[in-house]
Amino acid sequence: MPQTVCSGTMFTTPSGFSPHLACADPGEEEAPQEGPEPGACLADGPPITSASLDTLIQNLVPTADYYPEKAYVFTFLLSARLFISPPELLSRVCELCIKQQQLDQSPLDTAKVRKFGPKILQLLTEWTETFPSDFREEKMVGHFKDIIHRIAPCDEAYWKTLNQVLQKLSQRLAQLSQGEESIVKVSLNASSISDKLVAFKSKPPPIQKDMLSICNDPYTLAQQLTHVELEHLRHIGPEEFVQAFVQKDPLDGTQPCFGDQKKKTSNLEAYVRWFNRLCYLVATEICMPAKKKQRAQVIEFFIDVARECFNIGNFNSLMAIISGMNMSPVSRLKKTWSKAKTAKFFILEHQMDPTGNFYNYRTALRGAAHRSRTANSNRERIVIPFFSLLIKDIYFLNEGCANRLPNGHVNFEKFVELARQVGEFMTWKKVECPFEQDRAILHYLHTAPIFSEDGLYLASYESESPENQVEKDRWKALRSNVLAKT
């Protein structure tokens, strides 16, 4: 796929920066920038579309009279990890601060440092709040403490602020670790029992709870699904979207700046597994009942759950339910579907139709996002996007636009668009779920046994006999294979 430069809203450069940094000649070496002079502020200069990594780092560094735009801080901290590791970036930032503010000299310029101190604290605080996982590395905390140690002689209050920031950071990291451990635990529990009932319909009598025995109210189930979704979203860091698609940059002589790649995207991957589990859980619940009337009731129940998910703004659960109902072992149950009232289902399918790059869904998402921005309650603020499509959008942005231009400059225009998409997601994930938790339902959603794909087909054939020789042969093979395992 040809790689191009993306268009988007750009940031202006602070005075003291090169006014032509986005259009340097391909072979031109960019002179080192000294940063904005004291008294400089953001000017209405040309937008930053591309620049050398050194220039972008300089643009991040605050001074006594300059602080980068908040959107720039997020965009650069999100994307810089493709070119430089967070500890190395923070080290570079601290070195520039020490040099520009003469923090290695004695005595310090107290008046100047007192103006600079709050700004570097603001930058580091923003970093810890937005990308707390970066500070799992001791080097990061070490750099933070070092720069505060240098400015503390001018105002002892800096130590107090440092301790407060580190205390909040420690609490956030503990929450992240606890959340990751609980997600792994749930995944292990679910996978360890997923095949136990794979052939239960062939073994009477089944002793198995089903969803309708746990919760027969579609509104309540949709609300509990929203709890699960927001809990997963809460643990996904913005950096995971970048790290999921990191590649070796042919214009970059270094390796990608990540160690344990699996760990770096574990929350994102767990969320994708949850989507798949919900698809299979829906299909299992439909295929499980022995009687056609009961299966039709389950179909109607999940249609109502899906409709309520749409009304809430929970598009991820909505799509998982629709996907589960469209799985072949479910869709082939023609006699069952004929007994169910499906008009509402076809309306929901239309909303999530992939035609026109999911045009209908994207229209509904924009409506939910607008409602969220003008909301007066958390109930109206909920926006849970169809996550796989969000990942796909980011993937194609990454594949379609080069990280660097031929002259070696960073294609900052691309990362502005990346930050826009990720930043919108970060806003949505902060919403507190307004619904009361039902632990019994949540436990069932996480731990109820689900059929494997073969188990679904076997249960489907047991419910409605194979219609042709291909299905008959498959049914026979599945029965022998699955029963042999159990």
How would you describe the overall organization of this protein?
The chain has 486 residues and is mostly helical. The chain has two domains: 50-170; 213-245 and 263-451, Son of Sevenless (SoS) protein, Chain S, domain 2. The chain is 62% helix and 2% strand. The chain has helices at residues 53-60, 70-79, 86-101, 110-130, 138-151, 157-193, 211-214, 218-235, 239-243, 261-264, 266-287, 292-312, 315-325, 328-331, 334-339, 343-351, 355-373, 378-381, 387-400, 412-429, 439-447, 453-463, 469-485, and strands spanning 12-14, 42-47. It has a two-stranded antiparallel sheet. Helix 2 packs across helix 20 (412-429). The longest helix is centred in the middle third of the chain and has 37 residues, at 157-193. The model is unreliable at 7-44, 191-207 and 248-255 (pLDDT under 50). This is Ras-GEF domain-containing family member 1C. InterPro entries: Ras-like_GEF (IPR008937), Ras-like_Gua-exchang_fac_N (IPR000651), Ras_G-nucl-exch_fac_CS (IPR019804), Ras_GEF_dom_sf (IPR023578), RASGEF_cat_dom (IPR001895), RASGEF_cat_dom_sf (IPR036964). One of its GO terms (cellular component) is plasma membrane.
